[in-house]
Amino acid sequence: xxxxxxxxxxxxxxxxxxxxxxxxxxxxxxxxxxxxxxxxxxxxxxxxxxxxxxxxxxxxxxxxx
Amino acid sequence: xxxxxxxxxxxxxxxxxxxxxxxxxxxxxxxxxxxxxxxxxxxxxxxxxxxxxxxxxxxxxxxxx
DNA sequence: ATGTAATGTTAAGTACCCTTTACATCAAAA
DNA sequence: TTTTGATGTAAAGGGTACTTAACATTACAT
Lengths: 65, 65
Prior knowledge:
Chain A has helices spanning 5-11, 16-23, 27-34, 42-51, 56-59, and strands at residues 2-3, 60-61. Chain A has a two-stranded antiparallel sheet. By secondary structure, chain A is mainly alpha-helical. Chain A starts with a strand and ends with a strand. The interface between A and B is medium-sized, with 14 and 14 residues. The structure holds a DNA duplex (30 and 30 nucleotides).
């Protein structure tokens, strides 16, 4: 599973720390998601979609395992 | 977080065991999701959406904590 | 050259997703 | 009444999402 978090974050001109604050998660969580260390929970995926004003399906691509 | 899994499953006329097989999870997982014991992972949410031919946002409602 | 902001790594701990196994309940069919 | 299918509960274990903390790297400003 891949995601566009870094891309979307940079388009929105926010730092990892700012995004983490907005989503109420740790900065480490944002780093790990952007670097593909693990997948977001459904709840966090939803908060990301809301923050970036898009859909979960747009942020995440589920193709490969 | 709520979900429409049971509702969608019944509309599709499949048992919990059949749905579990189709999604490659245990029957226990389907039961727990339907009964609200915990939330699906993002990957499972995606498989559910694909199976029911809809979107993650349609199956899950994120309103309340 | 030094300081600062942004990003990154590693590690240890907690909570939750999902599994397997075993058993209980209920309705409908035999 | 007994059997069967569908649904449910409980518990123990593995893997993963997320946390906090401490420290490293890079780039840019002073």
